[in-house]
Amino acid sequence: MTNFSTLKPKKVLFIATRQIGDVLVTTPLIKQARQLWPEAEFHFLGYRGKLEMLKGNPDITELVETSDRPSFGEYLSLFNRLFQRYDLAIVTQPSDRAYFYGLVAAFRRVGVLGGHPQGLTDQDKAKKTKADKQNSWKKAICLHTVTVDYFAQHVITEKLRLLEVFYKNTEDLFSKPISVVPPAGEPLNPLIAGQLRSPYVVVHPGPLTAYKRWPLAYWQALVTWLVEQGWQVVLSASPTKQDLQLNEDILSLLNEHTRQNVINTAGILSIPQARSLIQGALLYIGVDTSITHLAAACNTPTIALFGPTPPTNFGPWPNGFIGKQPYQLRARTQTVGDVTILQGPGACVPCRKAGCEDRANSKSECLDLLEPNQVIEAVQGITLRQAQK
User: Fold this and answer.
1) pLDDT value for 361
2) Can you give the pTM of this predicted structure?
3) Which helix (H) or strand (E) segment is 240 a member of?
4) Given a cut of 80, is residue 119 above it in pLDDT?
5) Are 256 and 323 found together in one domain?
6) How far is CA 42 from CA 25, 28, 30, 49, in A?
7) How many CB atoms lie within 10 A of CB 325?
């Protein structure tokens, strides 16, 4: 690998054209790049409505927003805005479009390449061959690339390794505490703030896709138990129709006493407001989704319910961790720093498929078998550790 440790770019463009969680996990990379190039100007390109995770980030000078499905006119306007404006583009997603933006924008590039599926079946080999062909032109236009490993390499490590080529000693990247930077907080809606009382627990049941869902009856049992401990429960959710309905379904299963001690904030809070809410919580419990990563970034004790996703790749990063890999691939319960990850049983866990039927609306048996008592035991462990501090 050629070393470019003497390179001092004046303007750098970070590119993350995916979801809000994918934007949040770039913040350790941005922070590390700032240490490398303290005088450089950093811009960030991402999808419109997905960049709230960077609100107030002290290292970003300018946000460049684009549609996830740009018209020809929008493409043309964006290319005119980007064309050879930067000394370096850091492409944090393996998509063709992200690389094309990087090619247009900068004189030099580093980037993430799509990973190869595990296994030796004919179908896997065909996918690997196709991926190699897709990656060849991306390698050709980059100073340095890092290949995704969905089972063994954490996504934070993957992003940080994009800077390897700029270090004389690459181990320096992982020799100090690494943290995810949350967005700046904003005051809560007065209607919500007026109902809050401490201690409260934030519960976020809704994932982006159905195969990451935990059963409704389990949420009912957990929320009921939390209220019985004397804690208020705050239900969080995105403004999407399915998440709003999920929270309503949970509330409908609760008895009157429990419902009186639950606040439903579904669709009400912005990301910066969610940060403020989570920051003040006793603890946070959520599924495999971006808000769970935000909770960990806030240093709030976080319980994450994981099904098919390998925690070794996308487990919420425990702030302050030193090293490349905080997690084991498979463990019913594992705690690192303020983050506890729970997984269901089964030799197939984690499979990284879209549920047992490998489609977005599939169920995941591993989550069906992750029972409320396992979560309750994790909560008890966290509160015991807090009492001992």
Assistant:
1) 87
2) 0.94
3) none
4) no
5) yes
6) 16, 14, 8, 19
7) 16
